């Protein structure tokens, strides 16, 4: 039975999870530039300057200027949430991501 306008429906969101040494996060949203907001925080990752995302080595940084033009970057946004970006490009297009897609970070 479908809910009516007067019924509340609980939504179930997927959560990031650990798979061995990898973190599996999900694409929650995209901004107008193609940056990808993930459902994980920086505290979910081990320390290090580079991580593997979708089979590609990606720098961890704080600003887009931390990587050359056209390079992928994994960063924490102002709320501490992980996000993917391309300096001067679109991480969404570069990685071919859609909403709720899994993103494996190791």
Characterize the structure shown.
The chain has 106 residues and is mainly beta. It has a single domain, classed as Elongation Factor Tu (Ef-tu), domain 3. It has one helix and eight strands; from the N terminus they run βββββββαβ. The chain has one helix at 91-95; strands spanning 17-19, 22-30, 36-41, 50-53, 56-61, 72-76, 81-86, 102-105. Strands 1, 2, 3, 4, 5, 6, 7 and 8 form an eight-stranded mixed beta sheet that branches. Strand 2 and strand 3 (36-41) form a beta hairpin. The protein is globular. The termini are far apart. The model has no long low-confidence stretch (mean pLDDT 91).
Q: Give the CA-based shape.
A: globular
Q: Provide a count of the helices.
A: 1
Strand content: 35-45%
CATH class: Mainly Beta
Per CATH, which architecture?
A: Beta Barrel
Gyration radius from CA atoms, angstroms? 15 Å
* Name given to the CATH homologous superfamily: Bacterial fluorinating enzyme like
Q: Quote the CATH topology.
A: Elongation Factor Tu (Ef-tu), domain 3
Low-confidence stretches: none
| Count of distinct structural domains | 1
Distance N terminus to C terminus?
A: 42 Å
> Helix amount, in percent?
under 10%
Can you write the helix and strand succession as a string? EEEEEEEHE
Could you say which structural class the secondary elements and strand pairing correspond to?
A: mainly beta
Question: What can be said about the biggest beta sheet?
Answer: 8 strands, mixed
Number of DSSP-assigned strands: 8
